[in-house]
Amino acid sequence: MKQIAIVEDEPLMREELETMLKKAGYETMEVCDFETAAEHLLQLSPDLILLDLNLPGASGFQICRSVKQKSSIPVFVLTSREQMKDELLALELGADEYLTKPCRKERLLARISNILKRYEGRSNLLEGDGFLLDRQTYTLYINGRSVILPKNQGKILETLLIQDGRMATKQELCRALWGTEEYIDENALQVNLTRLKKTIAGLDMNLQIETVRGVGHRLVRKGKEAGHEG
């Protein structure tokens, strides 16, 4: 059953949407703490986000931007704001659909269905800065092309992406590569990291791997001052 997160501050509208979606066969979840909505939505990882723009604490624009910067979860903006500039801004920030309310429920459900169909199979995709990584095949989609990474390089890149800028320790990387951290083969790990660094450089990606001695490895934007190599 597809899960839809409702981000709406008006209780009656929220209840109406929840009832309609449940009758249509969807599972719903409500997000009512709008200041932390983006973080909560990323943790919930629903199949679709139904998002209002006029919210207290944080605007729907901010939430849309934050979610789309870190995930490929589809965002459907449902709002009373009818100005073209609002729609264009929402779409520019990554929204997949924009519909003004009030609207016919048949139209809303049809558009929700269309978005979910477009995203079928994309749950395996991790989104990076200007690229997507398929977690099943380790296919990298970047600059209009697709590149299949060797399995170990794909596993390392997946682990670093999941860390979202935080350091991945040697133990975490070894567990991703070999399913254990009881025995750490530092030479083999370093070889795979070096190969991935060369792959990233060859694809002209916006990211690079930063290595900090005694701490771990992480992805940073190209040009950012790196730590001490180890």
How many H/I helical runs? 8
Structural class: alpha/beta
Radius of gyration, CA atoms, in whole angstroms: 20 Å
Could you give the distance between the termini?
47 Å
Strand order of the largest sheet: 2-1-3-4-5
Series of H and E elements: EHEHEHEHEHEEEEHHHEE
Main sheet characteristics: 5 strands, parallel
Helix content, binned percent: 40-55%
Notes on the protein architecture:
The chain is of the alpha/beta class and 230 residues long. Helix content is 41%, strand content 22%. The chain contains eight helices and eleven strands. It has helices spanning 11-23, 37-44, 60-70, 84-92, 105-118, 151-163, 170-178, 186-202, and strands spanning 3-7, 27-30, 48-51, 75-79, 97-100, 125-128, 131-134, 139-142, 145-148, 207-212, 216-221. The strands form three sheets. Strands 2-1-3-4-5 form a five-stranded parallel β-sheet, sandwiched between helices. The chain has a four-stranded antiparallel β-sheet with strand order 6-7-8-9, covered by helices on one side. Strand 3 (48-51), helix 3 (60-70) and strand 4 form a beta-alpha-beta unit. Helix 2 (37-44) crosses helix 3 (60-70) and helix 6 (151-163) packs across helix 8 (186-202). It is elongated, with a radius of gyration of 20 Å.
